[in-house]
Amino acid sequence: MTHSAPLDDLAVNARRVHEAVTLVRGRAQSAGGHVTTEVDATGRITALTITDTALAGGAAALAAIVTETHRAACTEAEGAAQALRGELAADPRVAQVIAGTRTTARAAPRHHPGPEEDDDAYYATRSILRSI
Predict the structure, then answer these.
(1) In tens digits, what is the pLDDT along the chain, a chain of 132 residues?
(2) Cβ distance 70 to 28 under 8 Å?
(3) Cβ count near 72 (within 10 Å)
(4) Can you list the pairs that 34-40 forms with residues at least 24 positions away whose Cβ atoms lie under 8 Å?
């Protein structure tokens, strides 16, 4: 057994968890089944299906449905990824490192803007085009 052998198994486990997290997908479907969103563990959309019926409701309604299905898919993917990462965190060596890096400050929750939020005010004052 080499000196690095105790860490070799941890590296293998970390690599396995990382690879598994990259395969995580969260999926959500709207109540009427007209919008389906799939995201990866980071919340990036990997698939989006919108039926013609969903288009008939107008842009604002479609935006709200897409936003809601995206939010639900993100919640599912984040939970699955966290469960996988929890396997790694259960290793006493990793748990010790995590415990040593804990702070009293809480991480800011991810913000998934809702359809009621209007970005125009932001871009009216912070757009790169406004500064040229």
Answers:
(1) 455 667 788 888 899 999 999 999 999 999 999 999 999 999 999 999 999 999 999 999 999 999 999 999 999 999 999 999 998 888 888 888 888 877 666 666 666 666 555 555 555 555 445 444
(2) yes
(3) 18
(4) 34/65, 35/62, 35/65, 35/66, 35/69, 36/69, 37/66, 37/69, 37/70, 37/72, 37/73, 38/73, 39/70, 39/73, 39/74, 39/77, 40/77
Q: How far apart are CA 80 and CA 88, in angstroms?
A: 13
- Alpha carbon 69 to its chain centroid, in Å, reads 13
Q: What is the pTM of this model?
A: 0.68
How long is the chain?
Answer: 132
Instruction: Count the neighbouring beta carbons within 10 Å of the beta carbon of residue 24.
Output: 19
Distance CA 64, CA 60 (A): 6
Residue pair 101/65 in contact by the 8 Å Cβ criterion = no
